[in-house]
């Protein structure tokens, strides 16, 4: 049998300050990155308003970010 060698080096995870919209309701944990939020600032899970805040999150690379 053949077992592939796993790469011993893990990719570096880059943490950056990211603007997110978080649900203002204390009973809801909903949030989303600003890049993926619609202009409708309502929580999709509970219907409360979303407020802008900054969190330290892993950087993600999407095709959407390259069109900005």
Helix and strand arrangement:
Blueprint: E1 15-23, E2 31-33, E3 50-58, H1 63-66
Antiparallel strand pairs: 1-2, 1-3
Explain the overall architecture.
This is Cold-shock protein. InterPro entries: YdjO. It comes from Peribacillus asahii. This protein is mainly beta. It has a domain at 15-59. Helices cover 6% and strands 31% of the residues. The chain has one helix and three strands, in the order βββα. It has one helix at residues 63-66, and strands at 15-23, 31-33, 50-58. A three-stranded antiparallel beta sheet has the order 2-1-3, with no helix packed on it. A hairpin with a 7-residue loop joins β1 and β2. The termini are far apart. The relative contact order is 0.30.
Side by side, the strands of the main sheet go: 2-1-3
Oligomeric nature of the chains = single chain
- Which stretches of 5+ consecutive residues score pLDDT under 50? none
Q: Which structural class do you get from the secondary structure elements? A: mainly beta
Helix and strand succession?
A: EEEH
Q: What is the rounded Rg? A: 17 Å
The biggest sheet, with number of strands, parallel, antiparallel or mixed sense and barrel status, is:
3 strands, antiparallel
End-to-end distance: 48 Å
Query: What is the strand content?
Result: 25-35%
Q: What is the helical fraction, as a range of percent?
A: under 10%
Global geometry: elongated
State mean pLDDT (0 to 100 scale).
85
- Number of helical stretches of at least 4 residues: 1
Care to count the β-strands? 3
């Amino acid at each position: 049998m053949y077992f592939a060698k796993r790469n011993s080096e893990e990719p570096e995870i880059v943490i950056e300050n990211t603007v997110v919209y978080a649900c203002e309701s204390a009973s809801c944990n909903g949030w989303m990155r600003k890049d993926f939020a619609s202009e409708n600032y309502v929580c999709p899970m509970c219907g409360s308003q979303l407020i802008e805040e900054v969190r330290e999150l892993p950087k993600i690379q999407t095709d959407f970010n390259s069109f900005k």
